[in-house]
């Protein structure tokens, strides 16, 4: 892959990483704020059981999104390492070339579509 292409992907990955880190930070603050409210003054306590369930669901949802985004950040970090090691764009499964169309859609993709499908099937 050309150096200009690698630099363009590196920039995209860095921007995506920064955005996801901001999202994770905001979700963590939201989860902490919700936990502080539940342990705080009685006036902030939900009155109905349904409200308690809604708050628990929202907190679980936020934690799930945080986990997914943290996984994406780890994948982005791995892609940035592959750029430094000059192996970016090479499938970690078959060692073939990952098509640019796939890298444009998922710039941190470590595998070609065929290998990714095979891994998901197992």
TrEMBL record:
GO terms assigned for molecular function: zinc ion binding
InterPro entries in the record: DnaK_N, Znf_DskA_TraR
Zinc finger (dksA C4-type): 91-115
Pfam families: zf-dskA_traR
Domain Zinc finger DksA/TraR C4-type per the UniProt entry, residue ranges: 87-120
Keyword Coiled coil attached: no
Keyword Metal-binding set for record: yes
UniProt KW keywords: Metal-binding, Zinc, Zinc-finger
Domain of life, per lineage: Bacteria
Entries under PANTHER family matching the protein: GENERAL STRESS PROTEIN 16O (PTHR33823:SF4), RNA POLYMERASE-BINDING TRANSCRIPTION FACTOR DKSA-RELATED (PTHR33823)
Protein name: General stress protein 16O
Gene source species: Botrimarina hoheduenensis
């Amino acid at each position: 892959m050309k150096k200009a292409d690698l630099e363009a992907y590196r920039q995209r990955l860095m921007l995506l990483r920064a955005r996801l880190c901001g999202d994770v930070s905001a979700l963590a603050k939201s989860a902490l704020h919700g936990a502080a409210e539940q342990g705080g003054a009685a006036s902030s306590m939900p009155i109905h059981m349904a409200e308690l369930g809604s708050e628990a669901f929202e907190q679980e949802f936020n934690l799930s999104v945080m986990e997914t985004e943290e996984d994406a950040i780890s994948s982005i970090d791995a892609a940035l390492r592959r750029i430094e090691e000059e192996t970016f764009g090479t499938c970690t499964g078959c060692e073939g070339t990952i098509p640019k169309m796939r890298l444009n859609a998922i710039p941190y993709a470590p595998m070609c579509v065929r290998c990714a499908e095979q891994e998901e099937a197992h």
